[in-house]
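Before relying on records like the one below, remember that each one covers exactly one chain. Contacts with other chains, cofactors or solvent are not represented anywhere in the record.
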Amino acid sequence: MVIVGAGLGGTATAVRLLRFAREPLQVVLVERTPEHRNAGVAYHPAGNPWHHVFNIQAGRMSMFREDVDDFVAWANTDADRTGWPAQWRDVTFTESGPAPRRIYADYLADRLAEAAREASAGVTLAEVDGEAVEVVVDAGDVHVVVENSALPRDSTTPDASLVRLRADHLIVATGLEQRAHPFAAEVLDHPSFVRQPYSAAGVESVQGVRPDAVVAIIGSLLTGYDSAALLLRRGHTGKIHMISRSGLTIRTYPPDHRHQVLDLPPPRLSGDYEGPGDLVRRVKEEWDQACALVAEKHPDVAPVVVTERVAKSWEPHLPPLLHCVPTADLRMLLDGYGSVLATLRVSAVAYTTEVVDAAMTEDGQISLATGTVTRIDATGNGTLALTVSTPDTARTVEADLVISNFGREPDYERAGSALWTNLLENGLAVRHGRTGRGVEVDETGVLLGPSGLPSGPISVVGGPREGDEIVRYGRIGAFAFNLAAIKNHSVGVAADVVRRLESCYDDDQIVDVTADPATPAFACAVSLEARRMAARRRHDREELAHHLDDSLADAREALGDNRPTTATLRFAVNTAATTKLNDLSVTPRELRSLLRLDEPATPAG
């Protein structure tokens, strides 16, 4: 088993595999950038100074949806605070409060190490540095060619810098791809241009700029706020220009914000599709009515998060609506309204927003400009000149430092990744047809080829599934690839892979458990299996597995003459338990209660 990418997605999936597997399995976790291991770009310490905090509350950062308090508990009791600055050293983290982003790497590393220690006999973890550059599917196996790895070479790769790993299954968790900067082609290597603000070099440039320098930030949403807040908290006094096409900014979560799922009436958007303009008009009308309903029926919901509640409640109803929208129109709508959707669906904690918003007044230190940066040129005196264009005008902004938060590349045919180029060129992957975002996968995350069939034993976690998340689940904006999506991907993909590889599962026979007396026994088995999959300790999983075996025998007996094999029933039970663990119709805290995870490892009564 090989996982390519050891950031959040790869690490979370490795943890689930180490917990789920009961038969011998080696999990090989490959990472091309060693400092990104267990962190990715978003959380690695070198690219995240202590002033960078999560945009959401600390209480929502657990890597386990069924254990919502895990991150806060770790930060307060288990985190090694040696070397932490005084600002954070003695802090007691809370569910609704902020936390520095850089400590997440330690959290993920601790949970991965724990999962490896508590894994079943014969289930092991190997961490490998190197870049996966090629994938070959052969006779049911998958071979991953890794460049610049310290692993022993083999005769199948004549290039001395390459090594080939054979795997029963490959999981691709490469994170988000970086978008090209055509408007900055002439200044990409200029010392006053920061292309990657979440890199060590980028942070060094931002922190090293003189306090009175003029700074231009491309982007006015979350990443733009990070850059501006870092400057201001370090005492920057010079002018800061924030420039974006939308001119939108992010809102601030209330101090006591907690996740909540409201049961709202579905939007009335059925009927004939009459073009994007008509659809936008109807959506706005329904949206306004839904927001008014929340304000009336749920006065406890803070006004600033009403749109978040509505957007969440609409998710299950969006797929049939999107199905009726022609592909060209769907892509146009996603491109045109992406920033709006981002601001409606997510806010940020006050630690980040308050310092930026306070400086963004009419005559304040930060000026917000709406327009597209179409060109950046060096002036010859060390500064950079940005051309900011609107449909009617163009103006020039001169800056001592330019920080580009230009965003990710959703079109994987334009991504600069050697691995994705190889997968696409060799027909192992295809760009998502409906949205043009990410690649095509099936309902379990298995990679599909041009024929629409699985291209081999290859699964995908995270950003490459953006288009599928949009059309299959109605998750739009960052919620198609953020932490919440990755939590679900890690559970679903790990469970699917284990069902494929382990001998105790068999899907040859369809199990019908919809009629009594089978249903109660089946439900009991599903409950035990969900609890086994969520258990952190090997001893608890083994005890639950023993009770599960008894429950499976009871369920088979209840099915009478049509009873399936134990392996077939186990497959159905595990599939149902996976669905329960990924249930988004309830909050994580409600999920934990429904799964009875705080009860001892005894049979579910």
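The first helix runs from residue 8 to 20.
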